[in-house]
Amino acid sequence: MLKISSKSVEKMMPQDRLYSLRSLDTPMAGKILAFWLMGIGFIFLIVLLLPWQQNIRGNGKVTALSPSNRPQSVETIIAGRIQHWKIKEGQFVNKGDTIAIVSEVKEKYFDPKFLQRLREVIDSKENSLNSKDLKAQALRRQIVALENGMRTKVNQSKQKLEAERVRFANAKNQYERNKKLFEAGNIPLTKFQDFEYKYQGSEADFINAGIEIDRVQAEYLDKINKAESDLNNTLSEQFETQAELSKLKNELANMEIRSQQYYILAPQSGYVVKATQAGIGETIKEGDPVCSIMPKSEDVAVEMYIKAMDVPLISIGRKVRIEFDGFPALQFSGWPSVSVGSFGGIVEVIDYVNSKPGEFRILVVPDNADQPWPKQIRNGSGTQGWVMLDDVPVWYEIWRQLNGFPPSLYEEPEDSSKNNATKSQDKSSKGK
Questions:
Q1: 346 vs 386, 422, 428, CA distance in Å?
Q2: Which of 298, 294, 392, 302 is nearest to 344 (CA)?
Q3: Phi and psi of 94, rounded to 5°?
Q4: pTM score above 0.85
Q5: In what order do the strands lie in the sheet with 283-284?
Q6: Dmax of the chain from CA atoms?
Q7: Measured distance CA(18)–CA(22) in Å, rounded
Q8: HEC letters along 285-338
Q9: What is the DSSP code string of 118-131?
Q10: pLDDT tens-digit readout, 231-249
């Protein structure tokens, strides 16, 4: 309405009585809606410009950083039958406590005096070995005595041979002189024959003395060879007895160790969480698990599984926000400062090989600069985690998510192997 005339029509005809005029005005609800839309749009623009901390999400569970502090199975070393249980599930046991007692199922070990009889056999073998050793010593002494006797006899025979040689030489000399005298006719034939007879006798004694040396040597060598043969047989029997004795001692040691395996002991202190065998008299094989033990330790960590495409963006020492199952939490992954109920962690280990198809495992330990992890968490509890990266505007993060791009980094992550080497050097230097 132009309102050119001085007379106002509104006084004559109020505007709210005419529908056509009322419809030309903007409704109050529309004004309020426009106001709110403008406000929301303004706030949305501001939110788009706010910083957003990029993160990599992963699921996992609670575990321990050291393998020795993770749940372990207690296995039996020998086959047997459960005779008595010494524990119950949930009970705390110390290292070396008896968990269960088993009895034998192999007929070879049924004899309750098996160890005693085995020791008796070993004693008999040791006595037999001592007897053979004494016999071997006696044979050695006999051989030495025969060798000494042979040398004495040979020396005596050589002396006799030398005496016979001198006697033969004298008899030969006399024979030759008297032969010349006989040929000259100075002595009778009977006397010459007497010298000839003595000469022939000396020659025979000389030859017999030489033969006697060979006979003495042959006689004593035969005795020595027989004694050495007996000695070798005795030594052979001694070695066989010694081998049997070693085998018996080995069997005794194995049996003594086996008798100790009737008691299944706790390898370390912890809580009995699960008994895999039940009842009295149940038969178990070698290596069968009897129960599981959860070690008592403050060592706690979270193993998270990250997509392979995100692993290159993670480095040792990255901050992580963790949400534990059973603990109420309100998590704003991009704004960790306003999150409630989540706990801080640090990336400690990044596996070099994939644990699952397309996923890699990382281990996260508590962040000492953050709120301590709750004491109520148990090994195996489920978790959700966010590995925190760099800050980017909200609009960029929305654009990245819509296009399926990976998070971006301003700097290349440090080599994990170098970080691990540095940490190990720091620990060794602190230990020194």
A1: 11, 16, 21
A2: 302
A3: -90, 160
A4: no
A5: 263-265, 98-103, 80-85, 283-284
A6: 218
A7: 6
A8: CCCCEEEEEEECCCCCEEEEEEEHHHHHHCCCCCEEEEEECCCCCECCCCCHHH
A9: HHHHHHHHHHHHHH
A10: 999 999 999 999 999 999 9
